[in-house]
Amino acid sequence: MDKIEVYLLNSTLERLPEKWKVNEFMHFNYSDVMKSLYLDDFPNAWKQKDLRKKMATIGANDYFNKWTGKEFMNIDDTVLKSIYNNVRVELADGSIINGKRTGIPLAGGNHQLLFYNKNYVTEEPKTFNGLIEMSQKVKSKYNLDYGFVFPTGACYFILPILYGFGADLWSTDAKDPIPFDSLCKTIEYLKKLIYDKKILPIKWEQEQSMPCFMNGKAAFCIGGDWNIREFDEALEHKLGVCEIPCLERECRTTANASYLFLSKELEPELYKKVETFCTKVLSYEIQTMIIKELYRMPASKNFDFNEGEFDELTVKSYEIYKKSFIMPPLKEVTNMYHVLADLLEPNVLISDTTENLAQSVLKQLEDVDSYYKIVK
């Protein structure tokens, strides 16, 4: 009996699928890091034409644009579209490509959060400037390496800052998702925090910010819902979580989902297995398991989030998630991540005037295909 071959990152669902009793018709192929999945594991599997007839992947909505965009089926064009009757509309709409839904959401989340160590912090900051002031006082009082950290080399974590300075980031139909003025203010703010006042480290990734916070060497850390369990265990349940405090307006967070993408060449006789898998994963039992064990958010339309069933960290994360928005799976968004990543390379923020840097970034954002890698 053919199984559906699913390609995904270890961190997406960890090893929870092994508890779901789906191994008789689904086989999970795990990659340790995105680079392996994106450049090697999935493309190499796709080269095998027979394998294409039973392939799928699970990941964020931008997976559609990580390859050529031609590998995956439009679910709306198949009988499988009935599955959307059981999922949250905003998550289903987060997979729309050219007017058609392309991915089936299995879990929501992937939103940015501000974490704090309750051994050092007794109140949540109300503004971003208040966060900086509070973190510096705590750093001095407890002789910490940093008062506040986040992955300053990963552009996903500066999106709430851009929003806080007025960039709607595709949350609306605004003509300019990232206006010049918002970008200038963000560049100036990051330059001040990283280079002028040296409050934040230069080009840290999660590999640096996470252990710094977990080892008690920083009081605050911006991360995501995927960090909650590990952070809470490391701090021996002295972890606090809150929304990223406001700048000129709220620093609204972005979100995503773990979508099931199906090969466009998937054999129709495997459709029933897809339906069975999705029905099982969207069940109350497994949605609850995903929330409690991975701290991800529900994707099922019928899931009633009862705060009394979950711990304080989950409830707080859920409150923040409800106010977040999903970045659409556009090539413009994929390109933005690459362009902003270049901006965060060491010393780039201080390599030119703020205005010239902002103009350069906006020009690169217009060239949508400049970083769009087609894997053949």
From TrEMBL:
It comes from the Bacteria. InterPro entries: SBP. Signal peptide: none annotated. Keywords: Signal, Transport. Belongs to the bacterial solute-binding protein 1 family. This is Extracellular solute-binding protein.
